[in-house]
Amino acid sequence: MTSGFTDARPLQVQVADDVRLKIESGEWPPGHKLPSFDELATAHGCSLAVVRKAVDLLKQQGLIVTMQGSGTFVRDHPIAQLQGIERYSRSLWQSGKTVLVATPRDSIYGKASQEIRALEQVPASKLVADRLRIAVGTPVWARRRTTAVDGRPNQLADSYYELDVVRGTAIMEPDTGPGGGLARLEENGYRLAEVEEELSTRMPTGPESVSLQLPPGTPVLELVRTIYDDTGRAVEVMTSVIAGDTAAFRYRFPIPD
């Protein structure tokens, strides 16, 4: 510490930041067992009460987890990476692969899974109606899924379609078949041309926290995706709520003139 410098941060924040730096630097990798509370208190010259507050902060940040009778460990959670525009490549889903919003960083489409929560006809909300350019309350078809990475839920994805767009297709069935919903839309005569994405952050609702198994204080990313065909018609609107502590984003695109 530089002579004469006074750290104005509360002691528990100083301890938490020191531990966080060790985690982020890789010095303490996922699964690493943290020193005992006594050892942390001695190392930082503080009380056990301060260490407990620091540990609580780190838990709220989703960095560590305490296992009863075993100790406190660096949390091992898979990071899903959003693969920019390339995940919509026609060659991808025409070859039978399913386009998922959040996919594993180390093996694209390799460790992701999804579970159908509901297939149902519902009245269009304002968000959906505005993007499909229909009246609020118009019946639409909803596909509600939960996706997971390495078995941990990381996303709640709900897709909405006008009934005439999906009637008689596998989009109304649990299994959409090779290539997923995008392939079925094209088979039904809709040549997909454009994708619009709207991304924002917020705190989760109670049910979202439970469904995504979120640590306290963890935000979510909300993605609204609209897919248009070559006539400019919006043929799908998807709302996706992604666990903020499991998401990373990668985009590469040409710079417009």
Automatic annotation (TrEMBL):
GO BP term, example: negative regulation of DNA-templated transcription
Presence of the UniProt keyword Transcription in the record: yes
Domain of life (superkingdom): Bacteria
Segments forming domain HTH gntR-type: 9-77
Keywords per UniProt: DNA-binding, Transcription, Transcription regulation
Transmembrane segments: none
PROSITE patterns: HTH_GNTR (PS50949)
GO molecular function: DNA binding; DNA-binding transcription factor activity
Protein name (database record): GntR family transcriptional regulator
UniProt source species: Umezawaea tangerina
